[in-house]
Design goal:
The protein is an alpha/beta fold and 291 residues long. The chain has 8 helices and 9 strands.
Amino acid sequence: MLFGIDCASVDDNGDPDWARAKADGPISFAIVRSNYGTAVDRTFKRYWSALGDLEIPRGAYLFLRFPGTEQSVGTPEEQAQAMIDTVGDIDATDLPPSLDVEFPGGRAATGLSAADAIQRVCAAYQILKDHYSVSPILYTSGRVWSEDLDNPNVPGLLDSPLWLARYYIKEKLPAIRDAARFDNDHWAPPVPQPWGDASNWWFHQYQGDATGFPGFKSTVDINRFNPLVNGDTGERVKWVQRRLGCAESGTFDDALADTLQAFQNKNDLVADGIVGPRTFARLCWQKVAAD
C-alpha cells in the first residue's frame, strides 16, 4: 500500500519530522496547501522545501473558496493566480497543482447555483492549466460532485486525475495504516459520474484529521495512491496510453508495460512497469494530442 498525507497550517503541526514520516509512515507522497483562496498558507514554503530535500514526491493544492458569509474571497482567477505566485515553477518530478473543490458548509451557503459554482471551478482550473501547461489534479468527492454540483459533465475537466475524499474512519482517531483494510477494493471511493468507471481515481483521502501519524504532533489527513499495473483496464489505462502515444485500448498489456518501462528508463525512474507516484507525476507532465 502506498500511503501519503496532506496537510496545512490549520493542522497546527509546526515543523513536522518529515524524515520520520518518510521512514516510519511510510509516506510515498505528500500534498500541502499553498493557498486558502488568495491567502498564502504560512507553512507552505517550509514544507515544500523539506519535502524536496528528502526527495518525497510532493504536490501543492489550492483550497478554492466560494462566496458566503465571510469576507470577500476573491475571484477564482485571483485565487488561481495567488497559487501560481506562491508555488512558482513546478518540476516534472513533482505532482501538478491540485484544485480543491468542496463546500464545507454546503453549496447553499454560498448563494450560488450549481452552474455558477462549476463555472468558478472551471475559471480557476483554466488559469492553472494555462500557466503550467498541465491538467491540474482535481480534489473532490462523489458526494460533492453529485449533491453540490448536480453531476456536471464538463469535457474540459475529464482528463484531470482525481483525488477523491471518502472517509471510512471517523475523524480525530489514531491513523489507520493497515493495508489489509483495503483488500479487494474495500473502501474504494465513489467516482463522480462523468469520470466513468469505478477505478478511475489516483488518490483517496480516506481518513481526515488522523492522530498519531509518525512525525506529526497534531492531525493530518491520510491518503493512499492507486497504482496501475499490468492487467488493469479502464479509463486510467487510457489516460496513461494517451501520454505514452499508444492506442487507447483501455487494457494494460505486455506491450504497454514495455513502453512504460522505456519511459521510466528515459526519465531516470525505477523501470518496474508500474505507475506509482513518481511515474504518475512524470506522466502528468507529458503532452497529449488534445493539448
